[in-house]
Design brief:
With 342 residues, the protein is α/β, with parallel strands linked by helices. The chain has 13 helices and eleven strands. The strands form three sheets. Strands 8-7-9-10-6-11 form a six-stranded parallel beta sheet. A three-stranded antiparallel beta sheet has the order 1-3-2, with helices on one face. Strand 4 and strand 5 form a beta hairpin. The longest helix is centred in the last third of the chain and has 29 residues.
Length: 342
C-alpha cells in the first residue's frame, strides 16, 4: 500500500527556482566574460548548480534564489574587471565564485593590486580583508597554511608601492632555520648560501616585475632579500618590509625584527604555526607575538584556514586532512597522559 504524502508536506519538498536576466552593454566584453565556447558560464553552472542561457550579450540564469544572486554578483564584478582592462580567465572566475559564496562582493576595482607584469585581485573574501588590512595598518600578521596567498599578496603590495614611489625600497626576509649553524660549511659566498631559503620570495618578485628590472633593483638596493639575522641593529625607514616563514623565529628574534620599524615603513609578517621547525621546546616568535600584540593599535591579524587555500583543490583537501589529524592527536593526548600515569 502506497502512503500518501499530505499536501502540506508536498509543498515543503518543492524548491522554487528563480529566473533572472542580465544584459551587458559591450558585446565584445560580454563574449570575453562568457569565455571561449562559454567555458566560464559552464564553470559557474558546475560550481553553483545553476543553468545559464545566452542570447547575444544577454544571459538568463535559472536556479535557487541564493545561487542566482551569487552568479549575478560574480558576473557583474568580472565584467567590471574587463571594463577596467584586466583579464578574466578560469582562475578569476573560480575566485569570483569563491568570494560570493563567502558572502562578499567582487569589488576588484578598489582591491586590485597593479604591478608591472600583472594585475592581482583577491581570490577569497579573506584575501580581500588581508589587502584592506595592509592598506590601513603599519603592521599586519598573516597566519595560516600554505596556498592561502599570504606571502604572494604581501610581495604584490610591496611591488605596487615601490613602483608608485610610496616607498624607497622593499626588504624581504626569512629565517634560515634549516641551515642552523651550518651556513659556514656550505659552498659559495653568503648570498649563495642563503638564496635557497629565499627562493620563494624571488619567484614572487619575478612574477610581478620583468627579470631585468628585478636584477637592477636588487643591484641598486631598492629590493633587498636577506636572512633575518641581517636585520639586527638596523632601522628600516621608507620601506615595505616582509618577514616570511615567521613561525621559525624565536621570541627574541621576533621582537628584534618588529622593533626595526622606522618612519614611513610598513611590515607584513607571514607564517604557518603548524609548520614550526624550531628545536623542540623553543617557543615560536610568531605565536608569542600573536598573543602579546593582539590589542595593539596599528597592528592587524588575519587568520587563514584550509578553506582559504587557493591552489589546486587537492591542496585544500590535504590541508584539511592534516588539520583533522592534528585535532585528533590533541584530543587523544590527555587520555594518553592519564593512561601512562596509571
Amino acid at each position: 500500500m502506497t502512503k500518501k504524502v499530505p499536501e502540506k508536506n508536498k509543498a515543503k519538498t518543492k524548491t522554487k527556482n528563480k529566473t533572472a536576466s542580465l544584459t551587458f552593454s559591450d558585446n565584445h566584453l560580454a563574449q570575453e566574460l562568457f569565455g571561449p565556447h562559454q567555458a566560464h558560464l559552464t564553470q559557474m553552472e558546475e560550481l553553483l548548480g545553476v543553468v545559464i542561457n545566452t542570447r547575444g550579450a544577454e544571459i538568463e540564469i535559472v536556479g535557487s534564489h541564493e545561487s542566482v544572486e551569487m552568479v549575478q554578483r560574480a558576473l557583474i564584478g568580472l565584467y567590471d574587471r574587463l571594463m577596467n582592462g584586466s583579464e578574466v580567465g578560469v582562475d578569476e572566475v573560480a575566485a569570483a565564485v569563491r568570494v560570493v559564496v563567502d558572502g562578499g562582493g567582487v569589488s576588484s576595482l578598489d582591491l586590485e593590486i597593479r604591478t608591472r607584469k600583472r594585475a592581482i585581485s583577491p581570490r577569497s573574501k579573506l584575501q580581500g580583508e588581508y589587502i584592506n588590512a595592509i592598506d590601513k595598518n603599519e603592521l599586519v600578521f598573516a597566519v595560516g597554511p600554505a596556498g592561502t596567498g599570504k606571502t604572494y599578496l604581501a610581495v604584490a603590495k610591496a611591488v605596487e608601492r615601490l613602483v608608485q614611489g610610496e616607498v624607497d625600497r622593499i626588504i624581504l626576509s626569512r629565517p634560515a632555520v634549516e641551515a642552523g649553524e651550518q651556513l659556514g660549511f656550505l659552498p659559495g659566498d653568503m648570498r649563495e648560501k642563503v638564496d635557497p631559503y629565499l627562493r620563494p620570495l624571488y619567484d614572487a618578485l619575478h612574477d610581478m616585475l620583468p627579470s631585468d628590472e628585478v636584477m637592477r633593483r636588487l643591484e641598486n638596493g631598492e629590493i633587498e632579500v636577506a636572512p633575518l639575522a641581517f636585520m639586527r641593529g638596523r632601522t628600516l625607514a621608507n620601506a615595505f618590509v616582509i618577514l616570511d616563514e615567521a613561525q621559525n623565529t624565536s621570541a627574541v628574534q621576533m621582537k628584534m625584527f618588529l622593533t626595526r620599524l622606522g618612519e614611513n615603513a610598513h611590515m607584513v609578517v607571514t607564517g604557518d604555526l603548524t609548520q614550526v621547525d624550531l628545536p623542540k621546546g623553543q617557543r615560536s616568535g610568531l605565536r608569542d607575538a600573536s598573543e602579546i600584540l593582539g590589542d595593539v593599535k596599528g597592528v592587524a591579524f588575519i587568520e587563514f584556514g584550509a578553506a582559504d587555500v587557493v591552489r589546486h583543490p587537492l591542496v585544500t583537501r590535504i590541508v584539511t586532512a592534516y588539520d583533522r589529524a592534528e585535532a585528533s592527536r590533541h584530543a587523544a593526548a590527555p587520555y594518553e597522559k592519564s593512561k601512562h600515569k596509571k
